[in-house]
Design goal:
Blueprint: E1 3-5, H1 11-18, H2 32-42, E2 47-54, E3 57-67, E4 77-85, H3 94-108, E5 114-116, H4 123-131
Amino acid sequence: MDIKQIREDELENLLELYKYLHSEENYTAPNNKIKMIWKEIQNNSSIKIFVIEANNKIVSSCVLYIFPNLTRDARPHALIENVITHPNYRRHGYAKSLLNFVINYSKKKNCYKIMLLSSKNRIEAHKLYENVGFDKDKKYGFSLYFD
């Protein structure tokens, strides 16, 4: 499985996969707002989107944010977001490979920790996260959503 950082010209392929991430959102074609954010992401060295391709399409992806930090001997910390694998490719090791890759990438960047949040109802995903080393009992995660 080849894992790579997404290319600038792969936005539409990523949006196609994101249809399975938040089904209530419309990801058909990149509008001006999406294009502006995409450019911002591409220009931000602290944001990495990693993908796995199969059959000439992106089938698994996650976003890795690396944050500078003044504590922990000034070591950065990382956050994983938007972990998604196309339904037809689930349970084949794509997400596990991707997560192991970003964990190792974060270690190489000298991060002192890596975190992710997951919806409570995603039990299968929780098993995956625990299998790659995440500990759901180590800390509490809190979210506050805005309209």
